[in-house]
Amino acid sequence: xxxxxxxxxxxxxxxxxxxxxxxxxxxxxxxxxxxxxxxxxxxxxxxxxxxxxxxxxxxxxxxxxxxxxxxxxxxxxxxxxxxxxxxxxxxxxxxxxxxxxxxxxxxxxxxxxxxxxxxxxxxxxxxxxxxxxxxxxxxxxxxxxxxxxxxxxxxxxxxxxxxxxxxxxxxxxxxxxxxxxxxxxxxxxxxxxxxxxxxxxxxxxxxxxxxxxxxxxxxxxxxxxxxxxxxxxxxxxxxxxxxxxxxxx
Length: 249
Fold this sequence. Notes:
Blueprint: E1 2-13, E2 16-28, E3 33-37, H1 44-51, E4 59-64, E5 67-68, H2 73-79, E6 80-84, H3 96-106, H4 111-124, H5 140-152, E7 158-162, H6 170-185, E8 189-193, H7 197-203, E9 206-211, E10 214-220, H8 221-228, H9 233-243
Parallel strand pairs: 3-8, 3-9, 6-7, 7-8
Antiparallel strand pairs: 1-2, 1-4, 4-5, 9-10
């Protein structure tokens, strides 16, 4: 369970303050897959970073699995896996396997756990052929698969993905989508941002739409389709942005 209550965030830009998030509130249930939608600069990444304890909100609170994201950040970090856009968090001079081993050690995994988990992820993402090659020479898609594996190495209960299929080819994107289904079946809680509406419709139970730092819709997809009398998520999304904050369930 993730509980976000009245979260706001301001950044100082020279002598002025820029508001990235404005009194955002919503809950994510255990085992729910939530799509985070919004145009560039809407506040999606700031919100995900706040949940992941990488940014401290200016006001409001975030609870992750019962732990306060500010007061108990170390406990929150143990329970989440994160991947933010192009920031893979990988070390170019290490091989894919060495990168995964390094992060496994950080999470306190045993040698056996580490070995089994890396083998599972290598098979899942088709990385066995280049597992022992240095990441610095990898293509964007190869790096992205290793980065997703890094986020999942400790088998977290809560997973945050920011544009997770960026740079992936069709086959790898389909593997990732199948992974989301499998993670959901295991009771994982997932929030991911995406500009690919078909991906959101295929994978998500509900959506959170953010516009200029505010939530303009939070609810299940079927309820949204009924409310808008349409199943065209692209159209609904653009319409919501034009109308602004009208309904948050």
